[in-house]
Amino acid sequence: MTPLAFDPSGKFAKIEPEAKIIWVIGFAIAILAVNSSWSQLAMLLVLVLFAIYGGSSLRQMIDYFKIFIPILLIIFGLHLFYHSGEVLFRIWILRATRAGLRAGVFNTIRFINFMLLAACFFKWTSPVALAKRLASGFGLVRSQRLQEIGLVFFIAMRFVPVLIRERSLLALAMMARGSDLRAGVRRRIAANIKMTLPLFSRVIGQTEDVAVALALKSSGGTFFNRRARPLSSHDFLFAATGLALAAAVIFLV
Questions:
Q1: Does pTM surpass 0.70?
Q2: What is the phi/psi pair of residue 94, to 5°?
Q3: Using an 8 Å Cβ cutoff, are 13 and 126 in contact?
Q4: Residues 121, 18 contacting (CB under 8 angstroms)
Q5: Domain chopping of the chain, boundaries
């Protein structure tokens, strides 16, 4: 199970989405407020401890961040060669500076923090629960438009694993027909481009089936239960940890 896969047995799975959203906002403010690499590393350590306590393992997190290695290298490289100052080394017309190295390390760790924060949120939050709370206006506003937005969000989240599964099936089919998806960057890019059309064709067909099913069931525009469960003391305590962290960081900075 990856960090992005919802784990109903996790310690924070029963916390209401509103509390987790406030928690995420608090951590995001703290990540944006700190201005040193050591502070970002401290934030990373706190998030890793939260993720482990919530049910993730270090191996899962490492596998998750392997996906973002190209993006991390791009972020680091752009900052390394963009800033002026003392030159560490040159590559053709590009100059790596000491200020660029510091900025590259800082922004790379910041990006990792945001990705880990997103992974924690989606691991602890059920798409169905989030869609229901969105449709009910988080217990504050009742609107047909919010019902429709909640339904769209739920269907979109539901089809993420479908896209992944269909892509794997198409890759296996192409490999069975002689395509080598592991040979060279150009061949892999070409193979993924070839998979785009059949992939979206199959998924769009499945979305049409979902639309027909909703019409046949005569939902009448009411897709979710509008009644929202009131927040418990655990929800308030969880949300308070994120706000307290944001307040502490802003005060110290």
A1: no
A2: -90, 135
A3: yes
A4: no
A5: 1-136+230-253, 143-225
Residue type, 151: L
Nearest CA to 159 out of 193, 199, 198 is that of 199
Largest CA distance in the chain: 68
How sure is the predictor about 109, in pLDDT bands with cuts at 50, 70 and 90? very high
| Intra-chain end-to-end CA distance of the chain, in Å | 37
What are the residues facing 87 on neighbouring strands? 97
Using alpha carbons, select from 110, 177, 156, 126 the residue that is nearest to residue 20: 126
Handedness of CA 144, 146, 151, 156 (dihedral sign): positive
- Compute the distance between CA of residue 108 and CA of residue 201 in angstroms, rounded to an integer: 36
How far is 185 from 247, CA to CA, in rounded Å? 46
**236, two tokens:** 């308030």
Query: What is the C-alpha to C-alpha distance for residues 46 and 197, in angstroms, rounded to an integer?
Result: 42
Distance separating alpha carbons of residues 249 and 253, to the nearest angstrom: 6
Phi/psi-derived region of residue 144, left when phi > 0, alpha when psi is between -120 and 50, beta in every other case: alpha
| Token representation of residue 235 | 């929800």
- 138 against 79, higher pLDDT: 79
SS3 content of the chain, % helix, strand, coil (to 5): 70, 5, 25
Percent of the chain with pLDDT over 70: 67
Number of neighbouring beta carbons within 10 Å of residue 176: 8
